[in-house]
């Protein structure tokens, strides 16, 4: 028997969370969350090549919160299978032997459930090492689910046990503490975002948002790309401080983005009759690391003509795409991670100043507090809230 | 389970902090990184108080049991602490009443006829009959008042006894009745680490002639702090005097310690840690604050002065003074000691409505200064909470207001002495003698309810260590005129105070806020 | 802005109204998370709450149960010579079980019985806690050993009988799981009898995951057994074993008949209530069949 947090289908909660949630955020961690603590058997082993993993730390991601508050696009509905245990930022311990990974190894999990995990012949993307672009994420011997943490069969990080395919596992070096290892998955995503930005030597970049994704993206830009001037948009004090630590050239508050980018790129600023100011000229690459309408707007309106906008967060609806057309922008998606991003992330996690990031870890039975904390994390100076499963039975 | 005290670091999740400010309180937001020192939570009280008292009397430390010391025909004097302790006054029955009743029962059983009870006021004001009755209880009061239960009179030459001088040449002059008794029993309330021990008898029952040796600027600067008897020049002197007293009279010392239940339950938010405030606590805070702020001064003061603390006894020890006091200090430390790592550039303290010298009276500017720079600043062991040359920020309105009944010499001290100099080392030699011997002040001290003429000097000496140690003292919300008279600066808000402090400690100083009352004693490492 | 508005703003911001309480980071070691306060349920045993419950049980729940299921109750005669308090234990396969027990108990027992419910589920959210405490007279039980509560002791001492499901959770396949020894320990501590109850058919009627009984008035059997009294010097595990066996026998008895079950019991051949060790589908398959519907109803409008 394991303890697990489980997302289940509840239309009334979905509707209520969407309607009331933004006004009374406390309810999202309370009666409105379509989430429950259950005691159940661990997920069944789907077959050869799979091992059981006991999570040690499991992060709460912005996309998890969006799911719980009913703010993800309905586009995802066929890509998940209910009820599922969320949690795809996991550092854990294997319980079974796998080739080259003896039981008891500390591992991080690449959550994408591609062809290999589904016991299928590799599709073109998977053959290319771009498992995040796999076309077969709803078929094979597993229930639909784009990732571990959205699939009914694999379990997820917010529980005492999950199953993972050997191809998903990456062994964590001994010297890397859990608190850093749990950041490997988001860091791998950030590395992928940074790579998708395709910056050339000295190119300028804007990162909209300084949550975990935004900050790690700023870090990845600085460490792994030849980016020149990197501007980060941060709302809260602690975020700004970390952004600077991670190598941002400039940290601005959301209200001052256009002004600051205009100055640093010598662009022209225009004020439409309604809505945000925009630039003629601007940064080479604008990266949205939030996924809200406002943040994507900001990114679209501050990228230079012919520049690129990278969507790093799960995009919200109702974005005005005019700038993409008018300024001939490349709108680039960046979902999960590909190639050797995980290996690079493990290396980077050991070196970068990440100690302050995992602010607090809650046991599972205090999940309401944990989610509430994560919702308000920016203001509370906590970049990443995690579940601590090390003490649980 | 009561949790130990600790040091909080203010972060984004920290709610604003409750801060006392005279006859009000408010919420204050502190810069991130500010350290807030919380006292340990109130310890559980002794369940059977009568049993505990009886046990202490029958099994004293280094002394025969109390009954064995009592015999018919003997001269028994019982002295006890005055209304400066505890603060706020204790909900009835006062612990002194309960101890006195036990002691007197033993005396009655032994057939002792000659019993006198003396309030150990030293140079404090005489307590009124009603105030004494509140402390000793109706039975004791009716049996002994007024002839055999009275305030000590330090100016009654005929009733003082000079017992000799210490090896440092200090005169020991105390109540003649106490000195010439067969047994002197002292009943103490040890609210803070400064109280008790030989300070009870050698100071509580002493005259100006004796007190002047340690109540001066020099001694106070070298008492670091006077809340830590091992490193207090004041206490060394009292202990030397005590040993002389010990040669003349058998002293049976009874010391009691209280927990931290300093406020009635409806004001629970005053002692609760802020992030644990329930919605009810928040409502109580808001209601109490708004209610109090709307009232005229007089009613406001009445509400505060009527507050009685539901203190509970944490322990009692009896017997020879020094070993008893050793046990007492251990208990006080258990309730009040908090370890603090290192000193800060700025020490912030909110001053409440009450200090030992304005019970049922007005907190004048000198007393406010003494509460902040004397008492609160000295609540440390090892080294002060603020670094040398640092800044103290106090929160109190410091109104230019004096009680002419209780503090007549303070008025002149404030107008005349402080106008000339605020340096304790300067004003002592120049003015102290005049005030101490002024016949009008002496008359009011002996017959009315006035503090002794020299008392304001003592208050100012109490501040000497702090004034010597820090670079600047700033009062938030303090009356500009009274603050300026004391040679300090006032600021209208806490932010302004930090702005003023910039000259001394720079733009991002380390800040420590002590979250008291209830009392805490910082053990600074 | 008036000073009242200022104070309110400072309170609402500082204390994060609408959010959950959160101690400052540096205060966490000094914050008592672990000793989460037990949800108070004393009110649910007060006179008005009892009266309300009686109305709900008799006016709402009982007719509902009888309308939605075909309930058969046996063995109620044990209450004739049983004095409370006692601990009533049953196998647990469905949310129906609590309702079945409460509605089938004799009225005078109904008034003095309270149900141990998982604190982490039933008392996790206030609305569920209040609802279940009012309707089912529940009190919280920590099933993960977060420190021992003295609530059961207080309840027994003040004469309340306690319903407990020793399996700790509903069975996922209808067969009984390992019994935890909590109920046995309580019985030994207080030297009170344990009343075993077997429930059959509730899994088939409303298994885990369903919120309402299946249509067609599925048959449900509730069979009360003879009380088991702790023997002198008996250990918790021994007593726990006897309780498990008696429920096993009761289940057997319900499926066959009393004498046949008794014969099998004395021969040690009672079929295991944990079910056959076969493929899972067969276990579920067998459980979903439910008991045979033995009730002969006059079908007047045939």
Return residue spans of chain A where pLDDT drops below 50 for at least 5 consecutive residues. none
Rg estimate of chain C, integer Å: 22 Å
Instruction: Please indicate the percent range of residues of chain C in DSSP E strands (runs of 2 or more).
Output: 5-15%
Structural class of chain A: alpha/beta
Sheet with most strands: strand arrangement of chain C: 1-7-6-2-5-3-4
The end-to-end span of chain C amounts to 77 Å
Q: How big a fraction of the residues of chain A is strand?
A: 15-25%
Biggest interface, which chains?
A-C, 26 and 19 residues
Folded structure, characterized:
The complex is a heterotrimer of chains A (393), B (525) and C (302). In chain A, helix 6 links the parallel strand 8 and strand 9. In chain A, strands 3, 4, 5, 6, 7, 16 and 17 form a seven-stranded mixed beta sheet that branches. A six-stranded parallel beta sheet of chain A has the order 10-9-8-13-14-15, sandwiched between helices. Chain A has a two-stranded antiparallel sheet with strand order 1-2. Chain A has 13 helices and 17 strands. Helices cover 38% and strands 20% of the residues of chain B. Chain B has 21 helices and 20 strands. Chain B has a seven-stranded mixed beta sheet with strand order 1-4-19-14-16-17-18, sandwiched between helices. A six-stranded mixed beta sheet of chain B has the order 7-6-5-10-11-12, with helices on both faces. In chain B, helix 16 runs antiparallel to helix 18. The mean pLDDT of chain B is 94. Chain C is built from twelve helices and seven strands. In chain C, helix 2 crosses helix 3, helix 8 crosses helix 10 and helix 10 packs across helix 11. The longest helix of chain C has 22 residues. The relative contact order of chain C is 0.14. Chains in contact: A-B, A-C, B-C. Chains A and C meet through strand 2 and helix 12 of A and loops of C.
């Amino acid at each position: 028997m394991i303890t697990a947090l489980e997302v289940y289908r509840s239309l009334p909660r979905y509707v209520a969370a969407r309607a009331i949630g933004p006004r009374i955020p406390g309810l999202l961690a309370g009666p409105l969350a379509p989430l429950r603590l259950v005691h159940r058997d661990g997920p069944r082993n789907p077959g050869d090549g799979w091992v059981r993993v006991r999570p040690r730390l499991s992060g709460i991601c912005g996309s998890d919160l969006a799911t719980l508050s009913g703010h993800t696009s309905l586009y995802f509905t066929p890509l998940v299978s209910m009820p599922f245990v969320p949690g795809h930022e996991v550092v854990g311990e294997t319980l079974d032997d796998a080739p080259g990974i003896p039981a008891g190894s500390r591992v991080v999990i690449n959550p994408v459930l591609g062809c290999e995990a589904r016991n299928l012949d590799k599709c073109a993307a998977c053959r290319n090492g771009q498992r995040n672009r796999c076309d077969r994420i709803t078929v094979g011997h597993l229930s639909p689910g784009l990732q571990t943490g959205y699939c009914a069969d694999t379990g997820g990080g917010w529980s005492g046990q999950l199953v993972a395919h050997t191809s998903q596992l990456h062994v964590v070096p001994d010297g890397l503490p859990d608190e850093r290892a749990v950041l490997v998955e988001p860091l791998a995503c950030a590395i992928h975002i940074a790579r998708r930005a395709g910056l050339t030597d000295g190119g300028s970049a804007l990162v909209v948002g300084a949550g975990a994704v935004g900050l790690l993206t700023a870090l990845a830009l600085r460490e792994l790309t030849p980016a020149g001037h990197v501007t980060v948009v941060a709302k809260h004090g602690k975020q700004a401080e970390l952004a600077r630590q991670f190598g941002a050239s400039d940290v601005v508050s959301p209200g001052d983005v256009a002004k600051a980018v205009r100055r640093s790129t010598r662009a022209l600023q225009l004020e439409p009759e309604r809505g945000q100011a925009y630039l003629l000229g601007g940064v080479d690459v604008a990266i949205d690391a939030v996924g809200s309408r406002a943040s994507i707007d900001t990114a679209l309106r501050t990228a230079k003509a012919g520049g690129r906008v990278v969507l790093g967060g799960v995009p919200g609806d109702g974005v005005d795409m005019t700038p993409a057309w008018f300024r001939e922008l490349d709108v680039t998606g960046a979902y999960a991670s590909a190639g050797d991003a995980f290996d690079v992330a493990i290396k980077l996690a050991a070196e970068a100043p990440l100690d302050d990031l995992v602010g607090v870890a809650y046991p599972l039975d205090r999940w309401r507090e944990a989610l509430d904390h994560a919702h308000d994390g920016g203001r509370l100076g906590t970049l990443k809230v995690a579940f601590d499963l090390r003490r649980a039975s | 389970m009561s949790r130990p005290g600790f040091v909080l670091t203010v972060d984004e999740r920290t709610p604003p902090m409750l801060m006392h400010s005279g006859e009000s309180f408010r919420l204050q937001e502190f810069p991130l990184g500010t350290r807030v020192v919380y006292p340990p939570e109130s310890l559980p009280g002794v369940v059977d108080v009568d049993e505990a008292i009886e046990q202490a009397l029958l099994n004293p430390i280094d002394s025969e049991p109390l009954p064995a010391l009592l015999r018919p025909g003997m001269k028994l004097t019982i002295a006890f602490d005055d209304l400066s302790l505890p603060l706020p006054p204790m909900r009835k029955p006062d612990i002194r009443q309960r101890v006195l009743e036990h002691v007197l029962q033993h005396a009655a059983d032994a057939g002792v006829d000659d019993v006198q009870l003396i309030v150990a006021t030293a140079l404090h004001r005489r307590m009124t009959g009603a105030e004494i009755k509140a402390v000793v209880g109706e039975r004791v009061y009716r049996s002994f008042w007024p002839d055999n239960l009275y305030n000590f009179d330090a100016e009654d030459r005929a009733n003082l006894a000079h017992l000799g001088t210490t090896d440092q040449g200090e005169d020991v002059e105390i109540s003649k009745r106490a000195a010439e008794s067969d047994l002197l029993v002292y009943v103490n309330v040890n609210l803070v680490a400064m109280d008790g021990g030989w300070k009870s008898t050698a100071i509580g029952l002493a005259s100006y002639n004796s007190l002047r040796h340690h109540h001066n600027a020099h001694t106070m600067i070298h008492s670091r702090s006077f809340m830590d008897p091992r490193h207090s020049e004041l206490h060394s002197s009292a202990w030397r005097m005590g040993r002389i007293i010990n040669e003349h009279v058998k002293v049976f010392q009874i010391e009691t310690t209280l927990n931290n239940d300093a406020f009635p339950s409806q004001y629970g938010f005053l002692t609760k840690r802020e992030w644990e405030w329930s919605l009810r606590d928040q409502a109580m805070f808001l209601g109490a604050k708004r209610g109090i702020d709307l009232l005229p001064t007089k009613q406001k003061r009445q509400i505060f002065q009527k507050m009685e603390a539901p203190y509970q006894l944490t322990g009692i020890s009896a017997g020879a003074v020094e070993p008893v006091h050793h046990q007492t200090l251990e208990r006080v430390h258990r309730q009040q000691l908090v370890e603090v790592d290192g000193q800060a550039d700025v020490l912030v303290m909110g001053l409440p409505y009450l200090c030992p010298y304005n019970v049922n009276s007005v907190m004048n500017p000198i007393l406010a200064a003494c509460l902040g720079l004397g008492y609160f600043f000295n609540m440390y062991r090892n080294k002060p909470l603020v670094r040398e040359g640092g800044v103290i920020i106090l929160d109190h309105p410091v109104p230019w207001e004096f009680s002419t009944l209780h503090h007549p010499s303070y008025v002149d001290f404030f107008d005349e002495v402080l106008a000339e100099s605020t340096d304790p080392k300067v004003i002592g030699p120049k003015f102290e003698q005049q005030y101490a011997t002024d016949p009008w002040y002496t008359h009011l001290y002996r017959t009315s309810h006035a503090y002794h003429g020299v008392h304001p000097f003592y208050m100012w000496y109490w501040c000497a260590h702090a004034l010597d140690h820090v670079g600047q003292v700033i009062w938030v919300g303090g009356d500009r005129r009274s603050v300026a008279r004391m040679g300090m600066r006032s600021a209208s808000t806490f932010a302004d105070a930090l702005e003023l402090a910039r000259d001394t400690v720079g733009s991002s100083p380390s800040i420590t806020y002590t979250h008291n009352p209830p009392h805490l004693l910082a053990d600074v490492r | 802005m008036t000073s009242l508005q200022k104070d309110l703003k400072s309170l609402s911001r500082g204390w994060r109204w609408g959010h959950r309480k959160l101690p400052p980071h540096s205060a966490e070691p000094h914050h008592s998370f672990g000793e989460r306060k037990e949800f108070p349920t004393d009110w649910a045993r007060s006179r008005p709450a009892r009266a309300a419950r009686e109305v709900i049980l008799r006016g709402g729940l009982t007719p509902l149960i009888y309308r939605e299921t075909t309930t058969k109750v046996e063995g109620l005669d044990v209450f004739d010579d049983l004095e409370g308090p006692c601990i009533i234990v049953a196998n647990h396969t469905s949310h129906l079980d609590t309702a079945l027990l409460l509605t089938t108990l004799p009225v005078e027992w109904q008034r003095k019985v309270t149900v141990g419910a998982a604190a982490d589920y039933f008392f996790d959210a206030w609305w569920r806690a209040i609802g279940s405490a009012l309707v089912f007279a529940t009190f919280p039980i920590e099933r993960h050993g977060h420190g021992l509560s003295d609530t059961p002791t207080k309840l027994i001492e003040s004469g309340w009988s306690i319903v407990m499901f020793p399996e700790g959770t509903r069975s996922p396949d209808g067969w009984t799981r390992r019994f935890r020894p909590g109920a046995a320990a309580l019985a030994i501590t207080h030297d009170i009898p344990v009343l075993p109850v077997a429930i059959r058919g509730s899994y088939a009627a409303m298994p885990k995951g369903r919120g309402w009984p299946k249509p067609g008035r599925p048959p449900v059997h509730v069979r009360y057994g003879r009380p088991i009294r702790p023997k002198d010097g008996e250990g918790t595990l021994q007593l726990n074993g006897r309780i498990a066996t008696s429920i096993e026998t009761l289940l057997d008895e319900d499926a066959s008949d009393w004498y046949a079950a008794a014969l099998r019991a004395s021969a040690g051949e009672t079929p295991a209530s944990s079910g056959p060790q076969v493929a899972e589908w067969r276990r579920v398959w067998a459980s979903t069949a439910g008991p045979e519907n033995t009730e002969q109803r006059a079908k007047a409008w045939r």
